[in-house]
Write the structure tokens for this entry.
Amino acid sequence: MIFTPVNLYGVNGGDEYLPELNNIAAKVENEFEDYYTNFKEFRQNPAYAMYWNKCLSALRDTELFSHIIFCNDLFGIPPVKTFLTFYKDDFVTMTGDEKAMLDVYVKKSIGAVWGMTFKFALGYTEQKSVSVSMNDYFGVKTASAYAGRPKK
């Protein structure tokens, strides 16, 4: 099933997916370091807290999260691209840079959060690196899109 804003809010039997999406943020928050040990600093170091918290905020926002899933599933747009595009103004403020350029560790860590979300929390089995052409903002060249979600 493809998550869409329509079926998440009760049309076409989407109600059963809301509790699942509501638990994703908790799973990522509690188990991130177990899956991505190289990125534990992203979760633990206060210097990265604003980026970590922004990722969790997106996961807790059911409407935004459903759009991120929809864009990935239907259009093959990587979650990182949708996430960064949605929060572009916030990242400009957070980085203090009008282009919101992110350092390599932050970019990879954000990618790890979305990898954890799609592969281990949602159960997608396939991952493909695609060009996202976000060089003007963020300095991100590629990101992963996910496929192979198990059927309910």
